[in-house]
Amino acid sequence: MKKILMVPALCAALFLASCNGSKNNSNNSSSDTTTTAGTNIDTSGASANVPVATAPQITNTISLTGNDQRQYSDTLFLVKAGQKITLTMQNIGNMPAATMSHDVIILKPGSSVSDFGNAATSAGNGPDALNKLSANLKKEIIAHTKMLSAGQSDQITFTLPKPGTYPFLCSFPAHYLTMHGEIIAK
Ligand SMILES: [Cu+2]
Predict the structure, then answer these.
(1) Which band of pLDDT confidence, cut at 50, 70 and 90, is reported for residue 15?
(2) Band (130; pLDDT cuts 50, 70, 90)
(3) In angstroms, rounded to a whole number, what is the distance separating the alpha carbons of residues 63 and 31?
(4) Quick one: CATH architecture of 56-185?
(5) pLDDT top residue among 173 and 30
(6) Ligand 1 centroid distance, CA of 58 (Å)
(7) What pLDDT is attached to residue 46?
């Protein structure tokens, strides 16, 4: 007698909502499973046309483009630390090299994109701009592509030795303000 009264009382006092919820879940579970299985069938290119809002997959192949709006095509990559990474960068714009070129500079974890970008801006857009940077800033560079004019591309390989967040940026004057991102090595 005491037990029968206690169970609904506890339910009401503690988790009324969850008691109701678990009843509903068990009633619907079979139809839910069918629906989920149905939506998983399409693995073809449908997702290629839709901007991906979820976290990127781990990869060792990075493909980037830069456009005349001073934008990279992607700003976040996940890779494995200690493995060879291949990065391809292409300038898909049309503007003249002197006004709109792009590169990719990958920096050590903890490096400041704005400090590096400011110094790169002062160094200008000449072919030896990176050489004009201070020795301390040069030491921050893990790898970099060539400076690419419209239509050009470059491929580099490098290894991110330790897990961490490696910033990257474009070193063309002032481009770091919009052209920067992160490679996270796991
Ligand atoms: Cu750029």
Answers:
(1) very low
(2) very high
(3) 41
(4) Sandwich (2.60)
(5) 173
(6) 25
(7) 47
- Give me the pLDDT at residue 127, please: 81
Mean pLDDT of 153-175: 98
- Ligand 1 center from residue 117 Cα (angstroms): 11
d(CA 151, CA 97): 10
> Counting Cβ atoms within 10 Å, is residue 159 exposed (0-12), middle (13-18) or buried (19+)?
middle
Cβ atoms of 145 and 154 closer than 8 Å: yes
Distance 121 CA to ligand 1 centre (A): 11
For residue 3, give the H/E element and its range.
helix 2-39
CA of 177 relative to ligand 1 center, distance in Å: 10
Q: 115 C-alpha to center of ligand 1: Å? A: 16
Cα-to-centroid distance, 148 and ligand 1 (Å): 9
Alpha carbon 51 to its chain's center: 13
Distance from the alpha carbon of residue 65 to the mean position of ligand 1, in angstroms: 10
Q: What is the Å distance from ligand 1's center to 147 Cα? A: 8
Report the separation in Å between the CA atom of 165 and the middle of ligand 1, taken as the mean of its atom positions.
21
What residues does each domain of the chain span? 56-185
Find where tokens 């400090």 sit: 115
